[in-house]
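Handout, tutorial session.
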Amino acid sequence: MSVGAEELLAPLDEQQRRAATSLLGPVCILAGAGTGKTRAITHRIAYGVATGVYPPNRVLALTFTSRAAGELRARLRMLGTGAVPARTFHAAALSQLGYFWPQVVGGQMPALVPGKARLIAHAADGLHLRLDTAALRDLAAEVEWRKVSKLSVEQWAARAGASTASGHPARPLPPRVTIEQAADLMQRYEDLKDERRQLDFEDVLLAAAGMIAVEERVAQQVREQYRFFVVDEYQDVNPLQHDLLALWLGDRDDVCVVGDASQTIYSFTGATSDYLLRFGAEHPQAPVLRLESNYRSTGAIVETANRLVRGRAGALDLRAVGERGLAPVVTEHASDVAEASAVAAAVVDEIVRGTAPSDIAVLFRVNAQSAGLEAALARAGVSTRTIGAKAFFDRPEVQHAMSTLHAQANLVDPATPLFQSVSDMLRVVGWTHEAPAGPSVEREKWENLDAIMSLVDSAPAGTTLRQFVDDLRDRQQVQHAPAVAAVTLATLHSAKGLEWPSVHLVGLSEGLVPISYATTPEAVDEERRLLYVGVTRARTSLRMSWAARSGGSGASRRPSRFLADLG
């Protein structure tokens, strides 16, 4: 070992040290944002190896994204325990399935479906259903939710048919697709997979779990291979992953789970914090340890985060280790355009005062909000990079809209008001005055088109359609200019796991945060947690803002109900 056991404990605080030295039996670590969670679990694994408790090749560290698994591997290598594997649930299951399939079933393992949407399109053709790309993607997501929730097609249909208090179906579907059609499509999709001898990613988990449950020799080999488990981000586990973990463990209990219920923001994919919060009941002998010393953010930011989730299930009481710092600022603006301009001006001021552009992030709820922000920052001469989604002008519906606008730019009477010209053209490609109900790709597509409508507000009086289209082209070129130092633009979902010294949270109004289709108490709580994730991304500076009027639709707004809890 290049690092001694006591050396591994030296940089840890008291809470982290207790977590790192609790090596055997079930252990639950509730780790708040910025509390050194990754440090604690990697030092725990390294300490277990250094003291001889863990054979490196019998430990399996599990997480939910390839990026997070890569970070765990890098940290473990630095601590001298690079032989310990760190994988996603899917990667671990796929490895086991590839090894055991020839022995149990015979022959090569079936190929993986390269993408659900294409196969669902083939299934739709067989049922004489005409579906656009957005609908195919929404149905692919629903197939995934059904399978990780361990529901048959019939059970899914019954669940989808149930109504919430708002009167909307419990499971959103694309427009003009009935529950019966969706169920038929799901079954046809499964039949096509079988005919083509293919598996999707959820099948990988299901097949691995099935082999371990049914084949005793498979179960024995898997359990001999891995004796000690560490599961990061346990608040994101879904029912299928929970069951697979139980099968990997068998009758043993050497599992350490780590998570933060206040950062559960993927319920729409089937993730649930219930398993984290019930871990103590599931394993009565397990110590429940807490990491609550926040090393990331100033005291004022930590207090803001605490107020947001205080009294909620599983909420931790974070304590800032550093200085108090400046209180977060909340500002109101007349419109989305005014808000974007104000954010751009504030960013320029930060850069002039010495903050590196890469130390600044602007976070928002939906991808479509990036358009106005990209434009405002470009006008201010600030380079940007967008994470978590395609750049605005690269999105298919935006490119379609721009092509349509360009084709008509010279045909429209220059005296026609710009709002009328743009709205007429965008209706051709799918924009409507009212947004589609529910979270979906269709909704996201609408929001991107509505973002183009919002750019009409910032156009000078008397702008013609031709001039508007030329301005869009210019903005597109600015977006693609090479940027070495750039301000980050990101959705709140894609910002999880990241941090910046300075964070701007924009669009904190009703209808955006919480999003308009969050109509149940559970959905609103998830929106609250999403804002909590945004707040806890900031180290030293946090600015929050909202606009009293939207762009394309011109509707008036109220401030987010969550802001009342931050005052």
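The second record follows below. Compare its token runs with those of the first.
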Amino acid sequence: MFNSVLVANRGEIAVRVIRTLRALGIRSVAVFSDADADAKHVREADTAVRIGPAAAAESYLSVEKLIDAARRTGAQAVHPGYGFLAENAGFAAACEAAGLVFIGPPASAISLMGDKIRAKETVKAAGVPVVPGSSGSGLSDAELTAAAAEIGMPVLLKPSAGGGGKGMRLVRDAALLADEIAAARREARSSFGDDTLLVERWIDRPRHIEIQVLADGHGNVVHLGERECSLQRRHQKVVEEAPSVLLTPEIRAAMGEAAVSAARSCGYVGAGTVEFIVPGGDPSSYYFMEMNTRLQVEHPVTELVTGLDLVELQLRVAAGEALPVTQADVRLDGHAIEARVCAEDPARGFLPSGGRVLALSEPDTSPVRTDSGLTAGVDVGSTYDPMLSKVIAWGPDRAAALRSLRAALADTVILGVPTNAGFLRRLLAHPSVVTGDMDTGLVERDLADLLPEGVPAEVYATAALLRAAPARQAAGWVDPFGSANGWRLGGTPAWTVHPFRIPGQDPVEVRTRAVAGGVEVLLPGGDTLRARLVAGGADRVTVELDGVTHAFAHATSPEGVWLGRDGDTWHVTAYDPVEASLSGRAHAGADTLAAPMPGTVTVVKVAVGDKVTAGQSLLVVEAMKMEHVISAPHDGTVAELDVTPGTTVAMDQILAVVTPDAEEEAA
């Protein structure tokens, strides 16, 4: 076994790998960019090495810097985690050339299975059924278009390299194919450095099921059952579970054998995943999609139902040991479900978010496990993938696991950074999810029912109550003239106006005034209620509103107050209309295009003076490996353009102004 291993990654997966290294008594070496100098994986490793600036291309994607860090620290092996260089054959080969053990499959297997086109041809020859689609590598736009016409709409565009849903485009209208090919190439090039695409037939209402395989250098290959990954958004998994309610024992065995055949066909060694697409109405008709030559994000659900530590098995296989389990030894006990908590704002169309973690509470007591890269005080930027943590729950059956996971998400507090935790909790309560009758399109179809219905009245009331609370002197005396509670010498107390806004929503006014026993609150809709602060602390606040007690996670920032409950968070900021007007915010309106998220402008398609039409693509902003197209709000002329390709922008920063045509303005 190794004495020292370098973890060539960051975030929750680096922390998770370090945990197993520590359990085995192996020295861990972390690497970090300038953006991660104070990150959790850096704190938990035995040794940490700076490898460059925040940009991934100059740090986590630099083969030379990673190899140098391993040499300087005396590491014997490199664990790549997932993402970044985990499926980069060149990195695996460079490790071998430097005398380092790459904890993963041989470079030849990575190269073969990393090319989805060659992978399909290889497993097809081994007798594994594949999805109908284009053939051949390096297809031009015209060839992809011709292949799509032959297959028939709808089709799915997929990057040949990489995974994680990046660059994938579902195209139902042939007229949009050219634009979608261009967008898929851009995203693939940005994410994987390779814009090669393939096109496949789209299978309506599919289910995404994958098989975990393990192979050693002695010819042994086993599978550890399946994971259901059908709950997806934009082709990216959000919830995974093991086992799948769809498969019978016979289908499970057949798919497992197919996955083992796929692994053998490429000379695989280590942990890997063979992914299948399965028609929901006919689970016996399954098709190979791709093989991920690395540890998967969702590997914890397999660990919880098998009792195996996949990272430990990766290490033992890489050290030359034979697998300690045979196929007959594999047993699936109970049920496990995982939810991915990401820095994104469901109320703003799941756009990437960011900020400083002001308060943090993550459940991690059996039967719940949280794999996280977060610490209180850490800054979450837009440079890397938006996934922050994974909350995983085990139960003796699926219903018990669902209940535990919903409760765990309700107890997950990440204030300072908008996340999807509340959305995930609602998704897990969806009737089709509860019954297991789901497919990869469920989230998109029922998205409106999974989003919060505006801002609860108690959120605005609590924010106003916190602002209206009088300032107390050290001796406990209340200075009535220093209180923002409407107190005056005689008559009814005056209303105190609190202008508030939640990012992405219109400003509102909440009014408060002191009354006997508490505070009267006038809400934006005109309703009033009696409020009283029951208890407050560093990170919790309890209020009584019209006799009902509400408890919130609570934190303050220079911009306002953060309140969290049941996985949802709200950032209620003070809003000054005068300052907003002076800062140019009043200029924002129907004619103004603002950045929907912090990120980088990657494409600018127009110039000042250009005539544009409603819906025309003008700019592309990228954040956390996701593109957002900025389109013209109406026919008109580009009057202002404040950015160029490469410009870093903040959320709500003005990008351009399109003045409407005279005819439209008159109408």
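Points raised in discussion: The chain has 19 helices and 38 strands.
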